[in-house]
Design brief:
The chain is α/β, with parallel strands linked by helices and 421 residues long. Among the domains are: 148 residues, Rossmann fold, CATH 3.40.50; 138 residues, Argininosuccinate synthetase, chain A, domain 2. It binds arginine.
Amino acid sequence: MKFPHANRVVLAYSGGLDTTVAIPWLIEHAGAEVLALLVDVGQPDDMPAAVARALSAGASKARLVDARDEFAYGCCLPALKANALYEGVYPLVSALSRPLIVEKLVEEARAEGADAVAHGCTGKGNDQVRFELSIAALAPDLKVLAPARHWGFTRDDSLAYAKSHGIWYSGAARPPYSIDENLWGRAIECGALEDAWEEPPEDAYSLTAGAAASSEIPDVATIEFADGAPIALDGIPLSFPDLIAALGGRAGAQGVGRIDHIENRTVGIKSREIYECPAAIPLIAAHKALEAMVLTKDEARFKAQVEAAWAELAYGGKWHTPLRKALDAFIATTQAAVQGTVKLRMHKGSVAVAGRRSLFSLYDAGLATYGKGDPFDHAAADGFLKIASMEIATLARTRGAAAPVPEGNAHEAAHVAQPVA
Ligand code: ARG
């Protein structure tokens, strides 16, 4: 298939090999002038070096946008209020950054009068979906160029193409993993991790200490929340980005935040994913614990459904949609009561909630106690149970009493499914 032509294209540039190679490749195959846009969402890369690399690869302009605060308050904070964990485990690190990167990409394309935008995603991943659904939502008139879906390069081909175009590439000739990092955590894929049976090598991790290297002494942290947002760590008020950094550093030293997951990608394949989210994991644990204390049972049950829907939407790239905004509006109404402090104990890779308190607590120790002076009206439970058991008693009278639990059969229980040959 012939690659589409464009006049001016703004490329979402990461500084890595693929998006660097994409610059001369787009000049050659799309006949376009290429402008590189690097969006800082908290990745630890050398940004000035990346900007210089884009220019040396042939970009006519290369611009760095600092979007760290916007990312923290506009993407990570809503994810925290949604307790967002895709498939119950993944805090959506990469999924949260793409919609914001696209916002910046479209702004730049408008400012530069570009007719196209480009990204370096391959055809197998989720990130292409997130880029292109957000572009469709924000700028349906712009052409989208995805060179990595067309060139059919292996990593060696990319290196050879870079070399033949005089591109200086300082990374190791063959980086062992594919990494995406931002304020909310780090995603690690490929290489040795593709064998789902093999334990990830320690060198895959950079934000968290392994069991051997983690601290022998537990770390107890208190986190104070206002309107569902963390505002202080151990009594010291911090901005959200600073709190992420401070808590992440402490949790990482305790080995907290490692995730090893076989994940269902949007494109229909399962992939083995390793993540390190030393701030997101304890923050979500603390936020959930406080919500358990202050939300009504009905709110909590319904919010859990909203949270699952929110995580699916964000994972699938449907950030810029009316439903995501509607879910955020619901979540916002629940957060007014999420005020208080949570105590976390972090040690040897695990985080446990050790205590919580709130002025809005619905937990009434007086009502809950089995001790003296309990104001709970025990006699009132007689009437409650008469009514609560009415339907079940009627059922037993009309259809016969329920059969007792059968005795277990050890042989049946030991039956094991056999794989299909
Ligand atoms: N599987 C994760 C996700 O879909 C991580 C993606 C990481 N991206 C990358 N280019 N390495 O969100």
